[in-house]
Amino acid sequence: MKKIIKRLFLTSVLLYLLIFIVSCDARPYFNRSSGYFKYKIDVDTKEVVLVGLTKKGEEQETLVIPSIIDGKKVSRIGYLRRGNGAPYWAADFKSDKLKTIYFPSGFSKSYINDFYKDIPNIERIYWGDVSIDFDLGYIDNGSVYISKINYYEHLKQHEDYFDCSIEVNIANVTYYINDGTDNQYFIDEVSDSVVNVIPPTPYREGYKFTNWYKEKECINLWDFEKDKVPKIKYDSDGNEIYEEIKIYAGWEEE
Fold it and tell me: Per residue in 77-128, pLDDT tens?
């Protein structure tokens, strides 16, 4: 009789676990991987949280942070790490080879201490928007690129945020999310060349991304193999004459 009760108990536990796994995606705290990135699934939103790089990711000199992984929206970079003291935001991005990193917009704002501590050779950082608020203390003689709007509306008010060894530049290529707002999605700095870094596929709830276009009305495609960004021009004092190249996302309702 005791054996029967024990078997029934174990069967009930296994059945409960099976139902939980199927219905609730019960592996949110375990690292998964896709391409260059390790990630977790947020328990509440079921969205992706990037937590680090795979071995393949650690070998790259240039990385573009994705907005979608395995069909799910990437909502945040970093996770709450609980140690002996108070919990804090952390991420395990480590690479001796990484030199350039691109962040699109659309992430939840979080401050990550020591994000670049284990990326000693980083040279260029492209921020799609200023919600990417990571500690820059470990960067020596690096360059940060931001959009013109972000520069004048946000960072001019907080010039002390950047160390004097970090050069802040206004990027000349801006990709707009084109969802009825003027929000930027991705930026780049290009001169007299085609665009070599193609933005990650953007996410917009209820819509399917179609392509990148030269105007808001989405009439003419931007041809990444043929369309060139003009050469950057400078005035007699050596200051850049700013000219923004605008590229717009196209959408269709799902």
Answer: 888 777 677 777 778 899 999 999 999 998 876 667 678 888 999 999 998 8
Torsions phi, psi for 58 (to 5 deg): -65, -15
N-term to C-term CA, the chain = 57
DSSP annotation string for 187-234: EE---SEE--SPPPPP--TTEEEEEEESSTT--SB--TTT-EEPPPEE
Q: Tokens at residue 176, please?
A: 């707009």
Residue with tokens 């060894």: 165
Q: CA dist 62 to 75, 126, 222, Å? A: 21, 11, 22
Rg (C-alpha) for the chain, rounded Å, is 22
CA distance 141 to 191: 22
Q: How does strand 167-170 pair with strand 173-176?
A: unpaired
d(CA 192, CA 205) in angstroms, rounded, equals: 35
Residue 28 tokens read as 């949110």
Q: Residue 112 in contact with residue 137, Cβ under 8 Å?
A: no
Non-local CB neighbours of 20 within 8 Å, separated by 6+ positions: 26
Instruction: Look at residue 26 in the predicted model and tell me its pLDDT.
Output: 38
**Would the pTM count as exceeding 0.90?**
no
Domain boundaries, the chain: 1-27, 31-253
CA atoms 241, 233, 168, 90: torsion sign: positive
Residue 89 pairs with which residues in a beta bridge? 80
